């Protein structure tokens, strides 16, 4: 199931047109002089280390996308055209996610939360582990990213609300804006699949929703313990909100038959396993 080339181009143009106008400097845009690390709680320190690791898995994530959407002599020309179009988004998205990882690393270093060598070693140690999205069907790959982006967006928003340290608050505001754009793009592409393929799209989405777990849940050292502390830092993460966002999307795009299927799907998967 592949979206028409015209529709894909339209969505990519819409996203990159906005993205090209949004920029911030990971070094000079941040008011580092205002840092007050003593205002961070122990749980917030753990949460920053954890989300830094999650954002930092970008090389593995990007490599996986390049394998899923290749541009090479073994790939049919039509698929290459589709993949090349998608690449405009992917490379931009990757650049923004890399900036998230880098600014969080810088934050940890400048706030004195972790020594340079230890942090670089931990990031490389986790980053070199094999990563797989598990899905290969484009709609499922995009649905997975939609849920992940929404869960991340909600988490950063919650952390932004509770944190008192001003520089972290500033950085989180920037991250929230970027993640909101990423979520909007994946919503538009999943929505376009629902519109184009109707009922056929729903079972594929359902599988992703039922089985959703955040990236690295099965590879990161002490993932579940660290994830729990990360949630506690904001007083509990609203996992179900990510699946509700998907439900809303389906209701907005789908025809009546697909809507009926979607209602059943969302009722049975209210609890999405995020972070
Ligand atoms: Fe990010
Ligand atoms: Fe993102």
Strand content: under 5%
Helix content: 55-70%
Low-confidence parts, pLDDT < 50 over ≥5 residues? 268-275
Radius of gyration: 19 Å
CATH class: Mainly Alpha
Compute the number of strand runs: 0
Shape: globular
What would the average pLDDT be, to the nearest integer? Answer: 87
* Oligomeric state of the chains present here: single chain
Please identify the structural class as seen in this structure.
mainly alpha
Q: Counting H and I runs of at least 4 residues, what is the number of helices?
A: 11
Considering the protein shown, what is the CATH homologous superfamily? Ribonucleotide Reductase, subunit A
Distance between the termini: 29 Å
CATH topology, which one? Ribonucleotide Reductase, subunit A
Name the hetero compounds present. fe (ii) ion
Q: What is the second-level CATH architecture?
A: Orthogonal Bundle
What does this 3D model show about the protein?
69% of the residues lie in helices and 0% in strands. With 275 residues, the protein is mainly alpha-helical. It has a single domain, classed as Ribonucleotide Reductase, subunit A (Orthogonal Bundle), CATH 1.10.620.20. Helix 4 runs antiparallel to helix 7 (166-197). One fe (ii) ion binds at residues 97, 149, 152, 179, 182.
